[in-house]
Design a protein that fits this description.
The chain has 8 helices and no strands. With 203 residues, it is an all-alpha fold.
């Protein structure tokens, strides 16, 4: 396989994994957290259900950890090797290209911290319930960090939907790409609302 063909295939795989399974997992994760907006008990029940799924470790490894490692590592490579030209061509799509890379770096850092504070500590016996998240997010610095991190992850996913549609030939005309831009914006606003409601529910 030629170098250009290999790069094209890797970028398509990178784009696909960003939507399936990682995008699906993001929405599912935020919906589970949103149960906190109903009541602490509702969140605890939903969280316990997910935590006690059969073959959880296998599912998390195959569906989450391996895809997210590939997506993150290759995404960082793209971010540091891509040439941004917003200073010469300050168009909307060029700014979205730059923000996609910046949000990806922030998301990478945030997810690493989040996994440590939740999954890793859970492995050491900490119970990931409403009280745990309340105590964590009652710290203004932690809350601000989570807000920035969540918005960055959601933006990266929503804006990535546009790139995914282009990369996979779903949107080829200018009109279809403009429609997809509005779809991406709508996804960003709706998912952000879910994520922020859940975040404020913990405090």
């Amino acid at each position: 396989m030629a170098s250009s063909e290999k790069s094209f295939a890797l970028r398509r795989l990178h784009s696909l994994l960003g939507v399936i399974p990682l995008g699906v997992f993001l929405i599912q994760h935020l919906v589970i957290n949103h149960f906190a907006a109903i009541s602490p008990e509702s969140f605890n029940k939903a969280s316990d259900f997910m935590f006690n799924l059969p073959f959880k470790i296998v599912l998390e490894t195959v569906v989450i950890y391996i895809p997210i490692l590939f997506h993150a590592i290759y995404g960082v490579y793209i971010a540091f090797t891509s040439k941004n030209n917003v200073t010469k061509y300050s168009t909307f799509r060029n700014w979205m290209f730059l923000l996609q890379r910046l949000s990806g770096i922030i998301a990478f850092i945030f997810i690493a911290i989040h996994v440590w504070q939740t999954r890793v500590q859970a492995a050491f016996g900490f119970h990931m319930d409403y009280e745990f998240m309340h105590n964590l997010l009652s710290n203004p610095i932690a809350f601000t960090g989570y807000a920035i991190g969540i918005i960055s992850v959601i933006f990266h996913f929503a804006n990535g939907l546009w790139s995914f549609a282009v990369s996979w030939g779903i949107t080829q005309s200018d009109k279809s790409q403009k429609v997809m831009a509005f779809v991406s914006l709508g996804a960003f606003l709706i998912i952000t609302l879910i994520g922020m409601r859940a975040l404020f529910a913990f405090i």
